[in-house]
Design goal:
By secondary structure, this protein is mostly helical. It has two domains: about 80 residues, RNA polymerase sigma factor, region 2, helix turn helix motif (Rna Polymerase Sigma Factor, Chain: A); about 70 residues, Orthogonal Bundle (Arc Repressor Mutant, subunit A), CATH 1.10.10.10. It is about 70% helix and about 0% strand. It is built from nine helices and no strands. Helix 2 crosses helix 6.
């Protein structure tokens, strides 16, 4: 981000802030959508972030840290959005009877659906580190800077998130009746 543009916005230049907001919107939305998994909630989080950016920009000490600072604001807005609204999202089953689909394409859709379902089971904190690290391709140190947490905490959250994601996907892949049969003492 242009250091001078940030400095002008810090001094209250509305057109400079508007330029920053427009330039930042897509990446902020990408983070919010990745973390919240909901378009409306992501829009709300980005709007909240832009308001916070305008209010808190004069307090930003180093204009070179604008991008990391804005990531922190959007992730915090996502945390607030997730706490404030317990939206229920329904996973719609794939209707395979409509049109013929190539086998590879069907597997790709099924894989995506499994990943999406597993990802939705993660905490917002775990989704945030995955989105920043893998979707935005930030380094562990950059994620730590954006979230204002130690690099070791980022590494720990990433490890735990990936372990939980694998476990959720594996649990979804198990046959539906197996747990109830074992609970009744009837092995398969």
């Amino acid at each position: 981000m242009d250091r001078e543009l940030v400095a002008r916005a810090q001094r209250g230049d509305e057109s400079a802030f508007e330029t920053l907001a427009v330039a930042s919107h897509a990446r902020l939305y990408r983070v919010a959508r990745g973390v919240l998994r909901d378009d409306d909630a992501a829009d709300d989080a980005v709007q909240r972030t832009l308001v916070q950016m305008w209010r808190k920009l004069p307090q930003l000490r180093d204009a070179d840290r604008f991008e990391a600072w804005s990531y922190r604001l959007v992730v915090n807005a996502c945390y607030d959005e997730a706490k404030g609204s317990r939206r229920w999202t329904r996973v719609i089953p794939l209707d395979t009877h409509r049109a013929p689909v190539a086998q590879d394409e069907l597997h790709r859709v099924e894989d995506f659906d499994e990943l999406e379902h597993g990802f939705s089971r993660l905490s917002v904190e775990h989704r945030a580190v995955i989105v920043l690290r893998y979707l935005l391709d930030l380094t562990t140190d950059q994620v730590a800077d954006a979230l204002d947490i130690p690099s070791g905490t980022v590494a720990s959250r990433l490890h735990r998130a990936m372990t939980e994601l694998r476990a959720a996907i594996e649990a979804d892949a198990r046959p539906a009746g197996s747990a109830s049969q074992w609970a009744k003492g009837v092995p398969r």
